[in-house]
């Protein structure tokens, strides 16, 4: 029994195209319809053969759907919802993969007042973008957070849970507000800081860009990966999860200031204590299968 | 022709043990003598068979050496230099692998006034520590910075360059002061920020540690790797490269404040412009072979 027989994906970037591939692989028999506002993406999806059908409009894409997943930047959700409103079947479930949930739910509910909406967020990705970058196993072992309006495990939530589990993900329910705070910590502020460090390094007068790149293996290169993520997607995340991002950023700034002071005053114990504590978190990440256990993420070294 | 026939390595952690393995592989015929202040590390080195000889004291280790490489935390350099002063052959070259160069040179010169000292820093590593973690190819394609006192390509510098090139590294000469600024940007401040983000995340009341770990694939997990690096080594780096670290940290804080303001005021263009600019730096890192070109550092995804 398929959780959904007719799945429509709108927005075929890294996440949307990975869902399409995952459905083909894990839910044979399900029909995947794709639509992307960019005609060249539609052509690529057609050429890749990762959808059964590529529609010419968002409305045409959803007309037969029993699940519609919006995989566009969070700032574009409202417009897409307006585009599908007229053609959306009454019994279809509408979900999304956006990184901020309170803002997305408000946008979708505003445009689709009568629809069954279960916002979602698979916490997975790479720094690459576009339909060529997706792959079927992207969600294996990752968590997908669902933020249903009433917080309850209703029938559509149960079906959507089964859908994500079929793609290899584990599913957790959460309020949109709590989601937005948790993701500010585990994703949004880390991205902002990575972008910022890479920006600061490339703007220095005393150190050339060539030097920054050459000696990046000292740690900097890790930040450049995250800072290569899609600019539109991330701009929208920060504009749509403003409060939580600013709150966590404020906390981080206080903690950095404390470390700055410890360095200035030669307080090695404060540094050592923190550096010891943080190792335990890494062990937790590895133990719970949320990162590659191999040294250096499994990067190739020589040979 | 071997650049050095008798190599002594003091401190057999990740870097020291990688050098030992690298010499065995790339310079057969060279004799490697090892010494570590920790008897259990000496036992491990003996059991691993990565050195020809494991000495019982620092002095005994250097008595026949023509190259001595100190691979201890930068805060321990002065004490080790004192330990070897009496037994160091007059024609031996003394080098190190410390992450700060001005402080290390001062420490070595103070304890070894007549010695030939060529400080060095191979910009390579993983988050793992100890003699079991090293491997012969760690320096392949990475850069090793040498900071000779007069900045000149003298005979000992030429030999040390040949040594590092035999280990697979590329070599660059630099002043200690410039090294310390470059590394503050490309290594020290990124590490400090990573430690700090992981610390901040694990201290929040509103978000549990379990949640931070579960949803770490959103970006946070990248920071946990760096924040699992050796606490002693990194405490010493910050205490010994104070000025440059504080200077770069100040620059970063200004830039983060600017982004904070952009988020607060909804200035998407400022965010989008930065996020686009930083992608170019990532391309440079990949193009110049300083990171794995595969998505997500080549991490395993499912399967």
Description:
Chains A, B: Pathway: Amino-acid biosynthesis; L-tyrosine biosynthesis; (4-hydroxyphenyl)pyruvate from prephenate (NAD(+) route): step 1/1. Chains A, B: Keywords: Amino-acid biosynthesis, Aromatic amino acid biosynthesis, NAD, Oxidoreductase, Tyrosine biosynthesis. Chains A, B: Its EC number is 1.3.1.12. Chains A, B: One of its GO terms (biological process) is tyrosine biosynthetic process. Chains A, B: GO terms for molecular function: NAD+ binding; prephenate dehydrogenase (NAD+) activity; prephenate dehydrogenase (NADP+) activity. 2 copies of one chain form a homodimer. With 303 residues, chain A is α/β, with parallel strands linked by helices. Chain A folds into 2 domains: 6-174, Rossmann fold, CATH 3.40.50; 178-288, Orthogonal Bundle (6-phosphogluconate dehydrogenase C-terminal fold). Helices cover 50% and strands 11% of the residues of chain A. Chain A has helices at 14-26, 39-48, 58-62, 77-84, 102-111, 155-166, 176-203, 209-214, 220-226, 231-240, 242-264, 268-287, and strands at 6-10, 31-35, 53-54, 67-70, 93-96, 116-117, 120-122, 143-146, 170-173. The first copy, chain A, has a 6-stranded parallel beta sheet. The first copy, chain A, has a 3-stranded mixed beta sheet with strand order 7-8-9, covered by helices on one side. In chain A, strand 8, helix 6 (155-166) and strand 9 (170-173) form a beta-alpha-beta unit. The model of chain A has no long low-confidence stretch (mean pLDDT 97). At the A-B interface, helix 7, helix 8, helix 9, helix 10 and helix 11 of A face helix 7, helix 8, helix 9, helix 10 and helix 11 of B.
């Amino acid at each position: 029994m398929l959780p959904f027989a007719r799945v429509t994906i709108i927005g075929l970037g890294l996440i949307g195209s990975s869902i399409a591939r995952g459905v083909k692989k894990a839910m044979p028999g399900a029909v995947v319809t794709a639509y992307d506002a960019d005609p060249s993406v539609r052509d690529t999806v057609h050429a890749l053969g990762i959808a059964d059908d590529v529609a010419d409009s968002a409305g045409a894409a959803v007309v037969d759907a029993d699940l519609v997943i919006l995989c566009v930047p969070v700032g574009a959700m409202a417009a897409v919802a307006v585009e599908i409103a007229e053609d959306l079947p009454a019994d279809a479930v509408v979900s999304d993969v956006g990184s901020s949930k309170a803002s997305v739910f408000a946008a979708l509910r505003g445009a689709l007042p009568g629809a069954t909406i279960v916002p979602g967020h698979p916490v997975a990705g790479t720094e690459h973008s576009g339909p060529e970058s997706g792959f079927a196993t992207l969600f294996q072992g990752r968590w997908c957070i669902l933020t249903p309006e009433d917080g309850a495990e209703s029938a559509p939530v149960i079906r959507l849970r089964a859908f994500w589990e079929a793609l290899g993900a584990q599913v957790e329910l959460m309020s949109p507000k709590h989601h937005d705070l948790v993701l500010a910590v585990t994703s949004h502020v880390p991205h902002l800081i990575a972008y910022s460090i890479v920006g600061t390094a490339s703007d220095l007068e005393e150190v050339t860009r060539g030097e920054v790149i050459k000696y990046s293996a000292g740690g900097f290169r890790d930040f450049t990966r995250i800072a290569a993520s899609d600019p539109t997607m991330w701009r929208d995340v920060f504009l749509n999860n403003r409060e939580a991002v600013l709150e966590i950023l404020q906390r981080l700034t206080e903690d950095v200031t404390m470390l700055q002071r410890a360095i200035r005053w030669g307080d090695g114990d404060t540094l050592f204590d923190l550096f010891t504590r943080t190792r335990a978190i890494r062990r937790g990440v590895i133990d719970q299968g949320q990162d590659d256990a191999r040294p250096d993420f499994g990067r190739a070294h020589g040979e």
